[in-house]
Amino acid sequence: FRTSPRLFFIISLILPGIAGIFSSIKNIYTECCGQQLTLDPPKRFRIIGGNSALEGAWPWQVSIQRTWRHICGGSIINHLWIMTASHCFKNSNNYKLHVMAGLRSRHKKGKHVQYRSVKRVILHEKFNESTYDNDVALLHLHHPLHFTKHVQPVCIIENEMQENQLNFSSCYITGWGSSIAKGTFVNILQEAEVQLIDTRTCNQRDWYNGHVNDNMVCAGFDKGGVDTCQGDSGGPLQCYSRDRERFYLYGVTSHGHGCAFPKKPGIYTRASRYTVWLREARTRSVSGASVTDLSLIKLILALFFSFCMNLLV
After folding, report:
1. Which residue out of 87, 98, 124, 150 is catalytically annotated?
2. Do 47 and 190 meet the contact criterion of CB atoms below 8 Å apart?
3. I need a labelling partner for 198 at 20 to 30 A (CA). Which of 24, 130, 146, 273 fits?
């Protein structure tokens, strides 16, 4: 059939928009990770008796809430999945469970906050409530997060070999948990720099007396004073790689003896030990998203060609 200059003009206007949609769909799976897009890496602060995080400082940190009340923290690992701790949930019931991303103040929701309901809770099948072994869980969101400067995924350590190669220069803990033992949750997101503590040291008799296994890591200070506390559970222990210039999820806040006691640092689930388990869930999420994306593409193309044919009539 013959086409008119008018049709060519309209097509030239529409095609870039379609290309942009395809590009945004592709970017869902190629996004950057572990980057603080609003500021430089933070200075030394503390959760226990410490300072507040700046806006956008930790864009992968989320608040997990039930009936709009904060219960635990979590880390964004991609647009549909949140990594957190199993002990935050008595069971896998997702009733009235949702996450808030891009959040700094729990009482004053800013323009950067994104709300997402939870579709499914996946607890590690070998989680031990007594020893806190395998204290890791995943939340599958109903709808994908929109990545911005204030909402970003954290990088995942692929294996223990990469963990040793990344040459971490500093590690930080974050959360809205209590600033004192058995206290109330804080309003503003807190941050603290901590040191990774050798497992052999952490397992000494006057420390944790052999409790810490290979699935766990200790972080804090031997003199105490800096630690996660109630309400920080599930949140990230994130470490900065100067070589890669980004943060990696080193651990998931799990448990400990009190808060900030000497020789009783926080114990975190070692994220690199769960990469295979994590990848299985991510693969399922990408497969599900691909079906949705294909349907969207078909709809756009159908509308586009229908519009063009109407112009020819």
Report:
1. 87
2. yes
3. 130
Annotated catalytic residue 290: no
211 — phi, psi (to 5°)?
Answer: -70, -30
CA–CA gap between residue 20 and residue 273 (Å, rounded):
38
From 135, 227, 232, 293, active-site residue: 135
Enumerate residues 6+ apart whose C-beta is below 8 A from 291: none
Three-class SS state of 82: strand
Our answer to whether residue 105 is catalytic in this structure is no
Give every CB contact of residue 234 below 8 A, 6+ residues apart in sequence.
Answer: 64, 72, 73, 74, 84, 85, 88, 137, 252, 253
**233 belongs to the catalytic site:** yes
Q: Which domains does the chain have, with CATH numbers?
A: 61-286 (2.40.10.10)
In whole angstroms, give the CA distance from residue 153 to residue 77: 5
CA distance 200 to 35: 32
- Please check whether residue 290 is in contact with residue 234, taking contact to mean a CB–CB distance below 8 angstroms: no
pLDDT one digit per residue (tens) for the chain, 313 residues:
444 555 555 545 555 444 444 444 434 433 589 999 876 655 544 355 458 899 999 999 999 999 999 999 999 999 999 999 999 997 777 778 999 999 999 988 889 999 999 999 999 999 999 999 999 999 999 999 999 999 999 999 999 899 989 989 999 999 998 766 667 888 899 999 999 999 999 999 999 999 999 999 999 988 877 767 877 999 999 999 999 999 999 999 999 888 878 899 999 999 999 999 998 866 765 565 544 444 544 555 555 556 545 655 5
pTM: 0.78
